[in-house]
Amino acid sequence: xxxxxxxxxxxxxxxxxxxxxxxxxxxxxxxxxxxxxxxxxxxxxxxxxxxxxxxxxxxxxxxxxxxxxxxxxxxxxxxxxxxxxxxxxxxxxxxxxxxxxxxxxxxxxxxxxxxxxxxxxxxxxxxxxxxxxxxxxxxxxxxxxxxxxxxxxxxxxxxxxxxxxxxxxxxxxxxxxxxxxxxxxxxxxxxxxxxxxxxxxxxxxxxxxxxxxxxxxxxxxxxxxxxxxxxxxxxxxxxxxxxxxxxxxxxxxxxxxxxxxxxxxxxxxxxxxxxxxxxxxxxxxxxxxxxxxxxxxxxxxxxxxxxxxxxxxxxxxxxxxxxxxxxxxxxxxxxxxxxxxxxxxxxxxxxxxxxxxxxxxxxxxxxxxxxxxxxxxxxxxxxxxxxxxxxxxxxxxxxxxxxxxxxxxxxxxxxxxxxxxxxxxxxxxxxxxxxxxxxxxxxxxxxxxxxxxxxxxxxxxxxxxxxxxxxxxxxxxxxxxxxxxxxxxxxxxxxxxxxxxxxxxxxxxxxxxxxxxxxxxxxxxxxxxxxxxxxxxxxxxxxxxxxxxxxxxxxxxxxxxxxxxxxxxxxxxxxxxxxxxxxxxxxxxxxxxx
Length: 594
Hints:
Elements: H1 4-37, H2 39-49, E1 51-57, E2 64-65, E3 71-83, E4 91-94, E5 100-103, H3 105-116, H4 120-133, E6 140-146, H5 148-155, E7 162-171, H6 179-182, H7 194-198, H8 200-203, E8 208-214, E9 226-228, E10 235-238, H9 242-258, E11 263-270, E12 276-282, H10 301-304, H11 314-323, E13 332-335, E14 338-340, E15 346-348, E16 356-359, H12 360-366, H13 369-376, H14 381-391, H15 417-422, H16 433-444, E17 448-449, E18 455-459, E19 465-467, E20 474-475, H17 479-495, H18 499-502, E21 510-519, E22 525-538, E23 545-552, H19 564-577
Helix pairs in contact: 3-4, 9-19, 11-14, 11-17, 12-17
């Protein structure tokens, strides 16, 4: 029998359970309403109080390295500091004894300024200006380009409203070494010169991004971050040797100043590959401090200047004659110190002498303009023009270098009576250092011309190696022709007046000088000043490296003798750097006169 006392607790339990279920049902209905029925409305409401934000994730610009991987240009991290004006104020710090201390904003500003190089007033003004522009502002840029040391010092202050954005910046560890080739970057990260500019596609990074939501206090809401990864730039490997480049830059700087010249260059090419192993210039540029250099010195004269090659063209004329069967090294002409040709052209040598019966080899040894002019009569103008084009004269180079120019060679129909002869000894024609080096590379490489190269490869961020596409090699002259010219140039090094100055102990060397006139900009030539060149290779019996030294307007010695000591030192260092074995055979002596 159920009594009142037993029914009462059971009824209370049922009622309590019903109440709990009703409350739960209410919560469920409300939850469905919030998350499903009115979801869009509540998301919009949340976005009013939750502030969206994003920042870039910077990719690192690729490095530029030499042939062995030594860094010529790299990237470091710099930091941009920002303040959150909405939270700027006193900073609470814990003392050593555990007590709390409140540092007023004016003192905090002074602490920041002591590190960033700003006054407390300047920093306070940054905040005041940001608040005046937008009372709710949470962003005010403080200082860009802080070093890692400055960043760490600021972070150690523990200021909750101070933030940092890291980003890569360019650095050049060896300063001016190869600065003329590497180029430099602008303050806004734009490539402005050299390989930084011409190889920008390889080096450029692709930035990513980080997006997020944050509350009114500026704190990022956990779980809202979305990231798009950055892609770093590729590594650009050059063909040059950093240490050799450094040595030759010191050498050409010394030679330019010793000879009272305007500028100078030393270029080294590997004979069997066409790879440029050094391209030194003075004056040049330090990419770390571009503003310290004259604007005219911030590029590469090797690639952007042209000049009259003078007598360095005589071996090219000789190669043309030998290759076509018009002459041999022992063929002869009779040449005086100055002559007038049947067409009225006048040609003179740099020294007075009676009529000599010169061999072709002798014409190169004494660098006789009259002699090479008489030999040039043995080949038609069109034939000579075609060979110069095959040697690469006026064709520029295959190297992608911004601002590079090509030489100038008129077609035979525009050769007048005088230029028919003058072009044979490098006057009335303009070339560039890469063009001349390319022509001599063909002679040194048994007639096979391999396009010059300065870039070895680009290694992408994912490890993919992209080799530089090389143009096809061409046989300019027969191997026997090239060997004959090599031997004649070797005899220049043995029998010319500069022979003692250019000798490299233990090695047979081949060499040719050129003293070119300089245009005055008014259709004539400057008086008493010249562009001097010395170019040659070693060992003469098996050429491995070609070295060219140029000086613009040397004044202490005005002829190409001004280049001799630098050429000798440069070739000596090149042979030492690449451990080229000394010569083991005696040179082939050729007669100067018939």
